[in-house]
TrEMBL record:
Keyword RNA-binding: no
Signal peptide residues on this chain, from the entry's feature table: none
InterPro entries: DctM (IPR010656), TRAP_DctM-Dct_fused (IPR011853)
Protein name: TRAP transporter permease
Alphabetized Pfam families for the sequence: DctM
Every TRAP C4-dicarboxylate transport system permease DctM subunit domain range: 150-590
Source species: Halomarina halobia
Amino acid sequence: MGVSLRGRFDAVDEWPRGKLALWTAVSVLGVGLTLYTFYYAYSLALVRVRHSNLFLGVGLCVFYLHATLEHRYGTEDATAYRDRDRLAPGGAIGRTRAALGSYDWLLTLAFAFASLAVAAYVEANFDRLLNDAVVLGFTSTDYLVGAAIVAIVTDATRRAYGWAITSVVFVAIAYAMAGPSLPGFLGHTGMDWQEVARYGAIGLSGTYGFILGVGTTWVAVFIMFAGMAKTYGALDYILDVGREFGNELRTGVVQVAVVSSMAMGSITGSAAANTATTGTFTIPMMKNQGVRDDFAAAIESVASSGGQMMPPVMGVAAFIMADILQVSYVEVIRAALLPALLFYFSVGVAVQFVVLRFGWTVERTGRFDRGVLRSGAHFAVPFAVLIYTLVVLRLTPLSAGLYTSATLVATMYLRNLVVDGPSAGTLVDTTLDTFRGFRDGAIDMAPLIGVLAAMGIIISMLTQTGLANKVSVRMVGLAGGVFVAVLVMAMLLSILFGLGMPTPAAYILVVILVAPGLVEIGLPEITAHLFVFYFAMLSAITPPVAVAVAVGARIAGSNFMRTGKQALRIGAAGFLIPFAFVTNPSLIAWSFPATPLHLAVVMVGVVALVAATTAYDGRSELGLVGRGIYLLLAAVALYAPMTTVQVGAALLALVGLGMAYLDRDLPVGAPARSR
């Protein structure tokens, strides 16, 4: 490894004192927060609410101190949210700085200390707030601290994710306070500011609800593991292997970009952050291959958005879903697996058709450097431990994350001692890498803390006022109770509520407001949750917001609207797949032989659907008639009520697609001509 302490920490002895002090504070608190999380996973020493409060205080302090470091000194520290802030619309710390002026860093620093102060107050009064205050009443100081907590987490959300979700917090609080003045079904008895402070935070609800509890345990341990893996070089390894696989594929690096974005998207929990992270590498690679800039950005945006549907992490939504449904984590990822694979199958086929249609293929060199594959083989060890502990032993995600993280650290020490040689320098360098991983894992988790706490406030306001139930009842009423109409309305509402939001926040909002209406018309709970989550996820590529498309377009230097149009074309099948797993329940509730049969039929239907949306069947461009035929066959294969009819439509589509490939009047890889 051979990197000196001075070089590893960017010549910290040359930094100004203020920068050094902030960097030291972020590093110490970040490492401490990660170690504390692992200790809690091992011991479960505190009740979860108490643990959440400590995590909230320290985590928000890390977030604000790092924001101050960014703002004041422009640190070059590589973090997940620095790239997102630089590229995502409305979410940049840089935009906040521009809006509030050059002295905003002082306010940011004040929020850092305030985060610790309010958490310390709750910790010192925890037993009273949990038990006595509910009966004897809260003090004036309690209410003030509760209001301060609401203000702090709202501000943290604004700084990390912009105004999209922050405005929802404001609207929820305003709705709670303005209840008596609202007309019709929106009206309610109303809440004063003390009740907002109580139900929003100091009553150990709202901010301290189940969402933050899941976030500071199951979510935190995996985000920290991902940060450590990234520091150890896992992301670089994925991209290096992808480049090598590109030499073996006619589509070059394009399909590699899809797979790598899928892998990273399952972990990050943010379509914009994933697009910024992997897109920085994959979009230029695709453009160098000849892929048009708007298509390169669209491919990356769609692939990055869908990764949040992919088990085992599902952008941390899997953990929240298991907690809400009160089912095992394994049951959630089993139910989500086939819909996620269908989505990526549709994206892969769409990308293949687009690349072949426009002739963006490459010559297969056949040169695959197996040394690159072997260079990161050690990463398979912690991944195997993760799968074994979750699927075989069926441990909680918290315990599985702990054992996986410990395995990762042990593996890296063993690997470095074997590869670099047993020496004091190897041990020192590996230890420095490990502590950097602890720090970066905490920094990666820090922006998510505020938004999860803010979502708890939103849910508390909506449930205390009864709006959540009213929305579901109205949704079913407006659709007239018609099954398909309710599904369509749920789709539209899920996309609307998901616009501009990170995946966990979008899922939480739609599952509270929309999913109950689907359950009311007879849909199984887990199917309803996956249905609304799917569309909340797809809001990242849906105009007019389309945050993932905005990030990808900025990296590619392409027009936003044109990129959005291509993203919708590539991801079009994704908007119809949720209806397929509603009409084919065996895709979620596995059974034999129904599941493999319906999976095969739906896959053929997806290919036919992609042929219709891309106007290409793998060999030639399609006219309106050809597209219409494929669209009709796809609809029957996906949604017909009788299996025999579905199979018949799938066979006809398969015959048509097979005939297209037997038409050999064009050389493979040449640009398509119209029939």
